[in-house]
Amino acid sequence: RYGDGKDYNGPVWFDKQFFANMGLNLIANLGSGTPYSNTKRAVSVLDGRSSGGLAGTLNGARLPSLFTLNAQLDKNITLKFGKEEGDKRKTANMNIYLLVNNLLNTKNVVRVYPYSGSAEDDGYLVTPEGQQAIEGAPSPEAYEDLYALRLINPYNYGQGRTISLGVKVDF
Description:
This protein is mainly beta. The protein contains 2 helices and 8 strands.
């Protein structure tokens, strides 16, 4: 964070202390993957069933680790208003900020299909039951394509990059 006036030690452009009262914060979050339980068999996402029986131990598998980097750039501005009373004017502090969550737009896996351990494939179509379903479909190609579309679940991933611009006023 840069100061202002005589406390300013940043660059000066056109005789202006451009970065006066400005700061940058970086916050890195790293977490180990959370546990989940594998299942013995793949269950079609079309069935609506939630389990294929426990494979291994309860919570015996782990999701991948998570990493996000957040950044906030902000500038404080002192606002003076009203008539001067004695030797002091009324003031308020305004803080303008730009907040970027998940600056690197990291694709963090927060949920997986329990049989395959993948966020994108439940493993059903390669099982004997899945192969039967494909062969029994009027159009096997269409069945596979539509099944792949059904597997897309945005909730399997953490939030992508978000950018917020805001103003805070203290008086």
